[in-house]
Amino acid sequence: MTLATNPGDLVLDSFAGSGTTGAVAHKMGRGWIMVELGEHCHTHIIPRLKKVIDGEDPGGITKAVDWKGGGGFRYYRLAPSLLEKDTWGNWVINRDYNAAMLAEALCKLEGFVYAPSDTLYWQHGYSTESDFIYITTANLNHEQLEQLSDEVGPERSLLVLCTAFRARADLYSNLTVKKIPRQVLSRCEWGRDDYSARVENLPRATPEPGQMELFDKEESP
Ligand SMILES: C[S@@+](CC[C@H](N)C(=O)[O-])C[C@H]1O[C@@H](n2cnc3c(N)ncnc32)[C@H](O)[C@@H]1O
User: Could you read off the pLDDT of 16-55 as tens digits, one per residue?
Assistant: First the structure.
């Protein structure tokens, strides 16, 4: 550790195992990022690092560096891929995604801040104080979109990402209505290690008027 890093450096161990790298880095004043595929996070790493932080991990270099405890860490669980291939090889939304996970992922991809409202079902996030995003797996018809448009009102605008819609998308001046899959696919380069390159709020194309086909309804296994 002393050969290759200085205090304050970040140490990465992407095969964390029992978490020794992080424990040593922590005691030596380095920042650390550990990644682990297995259950070791829960069985070994988190309990161990908690002990390190509480000054209750006497092993290793504790004495040599006079470690007394302190600091902290954050733990994240990676979500599964947003898209998966169905039996026909088409990209479809991963079945493991529930509505809340889908909403959060698509907010990020569209450049909105995920902030679901407790009171307004159609506010899942915002880009400005008057521009909002609504994500739904529903197939929206004209009546539903009209009601949505009324609720949004003239002072606000709403991007509606839905699985499909049966209405003319250009009828509602305060709504931009889009189908999810094409949007997802056009913003991402799936299968790459770094998905951030195209995650940005690009200018929005004018939606095509007319009825749209149901996304993946017939294609799903
Ligand atoms: C030998 S241990 C690593 C020991 C650790 N680096 C240390 O210094 O004590 C290897 C670990 O890598 C994990 N692993 C294997 N493939 C992985 C992957 N693709 N992503 C994250 N962790 C992985 C295994 O579950 C295992 O716990």
Answer: 999 999 999 999 999 999 999 999 999 999 999 999 999 9
- Give the Cα separation of 107 and 110 in Å (integer): 5
What does the pLDDT look like over 102-155, one tens digit per residue?
A: 889 889 889 999 999 999 999 999 999 999 999 988 889 999 999 999 999 999
| Amino acid sitting at position 142 | H
What does pTM read for this prediction?
0.62
Q: Is 73 left (phi over 0), alpha (psi -120 to 50) or beta?
A: beta
CA 216 to chain centre: 22
Query: Candidates 12, 15, 32, 76: which one to mutate for ligand 1, based on the most atoms within 8 Å of Cβ?
Result: 15
Helix or strand (DSSP H, E) at 107: helix 99-110
Question: Which of 37, 42, 43, 44 best tests ligand 1's pocket when mutated (most atoms within 8 Å of CB)?
Answer: 37
- 24 Cβ closer than 6 Å to some ligand 1 atom: no
The span from the CA of 81 to the CA of 50, in Å, is 30
- Indicate if ligand 1 lies below 6 Å from the C-beta of 12: no
**CA proximity to 28, closest of 63, 74, 56, 54:** 63
